[in-house]
TrEMBL record, chain A:
<keyword id="KW-0645">Protease</keyword>
<keyword id="KW-0479">Metal-binding</keyword>
<dbReference type="Pfam" id="PF01435">
    <property type="entry name" value="Peptidase_M48"/>
</dbReference>
<keyword id="KW-0732">Signal</keyword>
<feature type="signal peptide">
    <location>
        <begin position="1"/>
        <end position="22"/>
    </location>
</feature>
<dbReference type="InterPro" id="IPR001915">
    <property type="entry name" value="Peptidase_M48"/>
</dbReference>
<dbReference type="GO" id="GO:0051603">
    <property type="term" value="P:proteolysis involved in protein catabolic process"/>
</dbReference>
<feature type="domain" description="Peptidase M48">
    <location>
        <begin position="84"/>
        <end position="268"/>
    </location>
</feature>
<keyword id="KW-0862">Zinc</keyword>
UniProtKB/TrEMBL annotation, chain B:
<protein>
    <submittedName>
        <fullName>Bacterial SH3 domain protein</fullName>
    </submittedName>
</protein>
<keyword id="KW-0732">Signal</keyword>
<feature type="signal peptide">
    <location>
        <begin position="1"/>
        <end position="23"/>
    </location>
</feature>
Length: 303, 172
């Protein structure tokens, strides 16, 4: 009795759905139909969605980011190397802190896949693949990549992309579902399931201007942290030299502007402006000890 | 002691080799001076023109060490493009890239026969909360990060923001 009523209510509030969003909605509804407990929880909070101007709170942002992160970790778990995981947090938290932003719960991790990519989740999660780590030639390169991803978090790029495709109300509902269950493990799981329905954003990709902004602000954060910011340009040049048909690059290349286009943007916007900082740290002993373990040169390059 | 330094030496040598294995070629995109050292006020080592091919030897700061015909020296790395967008790539790889981009933007990225983390895996719903807990456990505060950074040593610097969305053009 309650279930169809809720479905109708959700359906009405999602009246301006795009086709992409319709898929997300079906996802959410499927999950609702399979979780009577959640339906009960949501029916108490669903009236909140009528306020279309409601903004997502930092706590809610973190909640949805946790859902997205746990889904990504379900697809590729953390590399079982505690020293490595602590190391990326040492570098990442230092670079991200250069933004001066407070209240972000930064968590960095290396996930166990040959795929070359990195992902940022709302609220402060940044996941780099083992495959991308293997392409890094210096700590400055890693720091600049983490600066790029941190910028996505700081500027709320993924949250905005989800909101514009799925609608503010859909996101709000998913988040409220999670909040309603705060503290209970079952609730966390259901919240994560709901949030992960928005994982499509990692296949669809962001607006190209968001990627350019992440490159440029990432270089600035990298420079502030004491590294050579042009290490990001080196990463992009190395990516550009890899064979784009390699399966490990497909998701990255399908969701980002070409490395060439990104270099052209850096060239046009940053140019020589960061050269006073180019003498910053390039490499460290700690990076080289990990590079020995994870460096990968087996990828094919363009002929 | 001696063993350690020998082992370190071998490690650095191996790393050097792996970087050499990635040696690439590039194409010059604007007329540039080659310098004898990676500094603006270094003596000239020649000049390259747009379209000239270079072999990349190494990088330092904003500079790239290259060989260009019978010349060799340092060029601003943003004056060089590598890989698929350059004249050195084959039409084949360009075609493949275009195909990947098209399928990606249509939202139906092919997932069969693809190794690594595929779009299908990324969107499949199997959240792992135990892994999320591990991720949380590895996190450090910015204060802790600053302490570790000082030991490297890394020094924070004042760097002004660079707006990316305003129409900015570079006057090179």
């Amino acid at each position: 009795m309650r279930r169809p009523a809720l479905a109708l209510c959700l359906g009405l509030s999602f009246g301006l759905a795009t086709s992409t969003f319709a898929l997300d909605l079906n996802n959410v509804l499927d999950k609702l139909n399979n979780n009577p407990d959640l339906v009960n929880a949501l029916s108490g909070t669903v009236k909140g969605v009528v306020d279309a101007n409601r903004t997502i709170t930092p706590q809610e942002e973190q909640s949805i980011g946790n859902g997205l992160a746990s889904n990504m970790l379900g697809a590729a778990p953390l590399v079982k190397d505690e020293a490595l995981q602590r190391y990326v947090n040492d570098v990442g938290a230092w670079v991200a802190s250069q933004s001066g932003a407070s209240g972000v719960k930064w968590r960095f991790g290396v996930i166990d896949t040959d795929t070359i990519n990195s992902f940022a989740m709302p609220g402060g999660v940044v996941l780099v693949t083992r495959g991308l780590l293997g392409q890094m030639q210096s700590e400055a390169q890693l720091a600049c990549v983490l600066g790029h991803e941190s910028t996505h978090v700081l500027r709320h790029h993924h949250l905005r992309a989800i909101q514009s495709s799925a609608g503010r109300d859909a996101l709000s509902n998913a988040v409220q579902g999670a909040i309603a269950y705060k503290g209970s493990n079952a609730g966390k799981q259901i919240g994560a399931n709901l949030a992960s329905g928005f994982s499509e954003v990692y296949v669809r990709g962001l607006d190209k201007d968001d990627e350019f902004e992440a490159d440029i602000t990432g270089m600035v954060l990298c420079a502030r942290a004491g590294y050579n910011p042009y290490a990001l340009a080196a990463v992009l040049q190395n990516l550009d030299a890899l064979n784009p048909a390699d399966g490990n690059l497909q998701l990255l290349f399908a969701t980002h502007p070409t490395p060439r286009a990104r270099l052209d943007k850096i060239d046009a916007v940053v140019g020589e402006q960061l050269e006073p900082y180019a003498s910053g740290v390039e490499n460290t002993v700690r990076f080289q000890s990990f590079a020995k373990r994870y460096s990968k040169v087996g990828l094919t390059t363009t002929p | 002691m001696k063993t350690t330094s020998v082992r370190l030496g071998v490690g650095v040598l191996l790393l050097g080799c792996s970087l050499l294995a990635q040696a690439e070629t590039g194409t010059v995109i604007r007329a540039s001076d080659l310098k004898q050292k990676p500094f603006l006020d270094a003596a000239s080592a020649g000049r390259v023109s747009p379209g000239n091919n270079v072999t990349i030897v190494s990088r330092q700061g904003a500079w790239m060490q290259v060989k260009a015909g019978n010349q060799a020296g340092w060029i601003k790395l943003l004056n060089v493009r590598t890989g698929s967008g350059t004249a050195s790539s084959s039409g084949n790889s360009l075609g493949t890239l275009a195909k990947v981009l098209t399928t990606g933007s249509s939202g139906t990225t092919v997932t069969t026969g693809v190794k690594g983390l595929t779009s299908g895996e990324v969107t499949a719903t199997h959240p792992d909360l135990a892994q999320l807990q591990k991720l949380d456990d590895y996190a450090i505060s910015s204060t802790q990060a600053a302490t570790t950074a000082r030991a490297v040593p890394l020094k924070a610097r004042q760097v002004p923001d660079i707006p990316s969305r305003a129409a900015t053009t570079r006057s090179n």
